[in-house]
Specification:
Blueprint lengths: L5 E5 L5 E2 L1 E6 L2 E12 L6 E6 L4 E5 L21 E7 L3 E8 L7 E6 L3 E8 L2 E8 L14 E5 L3 E5 L9 E4 L4 H9 L6 E3 L9 E4 L6 E15 L8 H11 L7 E9 L2
Parallel strand pairs: 12-17
Antiparallel strand pairs: 1-2, 1-8, 3-4, 4-5, 5-6, 7-8, 9-10, 10-11, 12-13, 14-16, 15-16, 15-17, 17-18
């Protein structure tokens, strides 16, 4: 994929642009790893799949107004890339240019091993600029349902302080964070919410299914998790889970909010 090219869906023609790996370094046939833009949600994000689109392997996180929530290093002031998402009735696509434009010759490739690489032309060879996944926390769903991945000094899975977090998202682009909280409170099935924009000035995301693939990031966004009041004073997740198992529905009589920050949504 070269600068200026698009990934995603042309809604007028039905054309869907996907980046696919070779079968091997020596065989240019269609491989098992596919890199594509998920266009079936109101906040599209990039996914890397294995097994020809059947197994989620890595994702970028949603677009937060400045960049991908799961790749904060690509959206800073010193970033080499300028991404341009488009999501309307005509198309749902993503493209990019380099900064400064035309400064180097670069491309993205998907390897048969299950990684995305950014490489640039350096004299007579291609030199790697970066790749994804980077670590164990980058692998989709590494910590399973209700788990969050932490990779500061070493890889670790910890639990959210709530039972029944949700992955299916509903997004309202024009809603404030306060309105988002209120809307979530009005629905007993809503167990987490967060802002779409990284500054939390506009946009609302709400979750309604098993929450998968969350991780702690230094430059991540806040995730507001709906919990039972008893859990607000419980520090250890294992005790929290045991308490929920023992008391069940009785804990749902009172609720509160905890803030998990920073985290990839």
């Amino acid at each position: 994929m070269l600068p200026g090219m698009k990934l995603g869906l042309d809604r007028t023609t039905g054309l869907k642009r996907i980046l696919k790996s070779w079968k091997s370094k020596d065989d240019p046939g269609t491989g098992n790893c596919w890199y594509m833009l998920n266009t079936n949600v109101s906040s599209p994000e990039l996914f890397l799949y294995k097994d020809k689109g059947n197994v989620k392997w890595w994702r970028s996180g949603h677009w937060n107004g400045f960049g991908w929530s799961g790749i904060p290093t690509l959206s800073g002031p010193n970033s080499l890339y300028n991404f341009s998402p488009v999501n309307n009735q005509t198309e749902t696509t993503i493209s990019y240019v380099l900064l400064p434009e035309g400064s180097i010759f670069q491309r993205f490739v998907v390897n048969e091993s299950g990684s995305i690489e950014s490489i640039m032309a350096d004299l007579r060879r291609w030199t790697p600029l970066g790749s994804a996944p980077l670590d164990q926390c980058d692998n989709y769903g590494k910590c399973g349902a209700y788990g969050k991945c932490v990779n500061v000094t070493e890889f670790e899975c910890t639990c959210h302080k709530a039972n029944g977090l949700r992955e299916m998202r509903q997004i309202d682009s024009n809603m404030s964070l306060k309105e988002c909280q209120q809307r979530c409170l009005e629905n007993c099935n809503c167990t987490a919410y967060g802002g779409v924009d990284v500054k939390e000035e506009a946009g609302c995301m709400r979750w309604y299914g098993d929450l998968m693939d969350t991780r702690v990031l230094k430059e991540g966004q806040n995730l507001y998790v709906r919990v039972d009041a008893v859990e607000l004073v419980t520090k250890e997740c294992n005790k929290c889970a045991l308490m929920l198992a023992q008391l069940g529905p009785k804990l749902k009589q009172t609720t509160g909010w905890i803030e998990e920050t920073p985290i990839e949504l």
